[in-house]
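>> received
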Amino acid sequence: MDRIEVLRKSDVFHYLDDAELKEVDNMCTVEVIDAGTILFKQNRELEKLYVIQEGCVAIQLELGPTDRRQMQSAGALECVGWEATIPPFRAMTTAQALEKTTVLSFNGRALRNLYYTNPGLCCACAGGVAYVISQRLKAAFTQLMGVAHQY
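>> returned
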């Protein structure tokens, strides 16, 4: 699948039309991440948003210096690192590649700066980020209800 098609089907950029997808495609870089590599760490400044082209990334919550729990995972066509686009630009979780993973990476500042150069595209991207957040929140609630139902 080519990059434009990945972006078109992704959770974060699926709202965009063809012209907007081409502009966003010019902003991304393909990266191959080895299994076990940490993309970003919880509570640290986050500079990149990633769209997974192929592979899987664990979304982990750090409970202490040596204790991490996998809360969710993200696979092909899903986004991690959306916090790079929203103040205070700090990761809420840690993301770690579970297998060799190919991503389209975006500079968060460049996406935010679309506000000045292409406000319509910036707004559409923000809508995509809101969609991602809502889906992750829904999954977390569902997971929590499953745990609560057991007791």
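>> The chain has one domain: 3-149.
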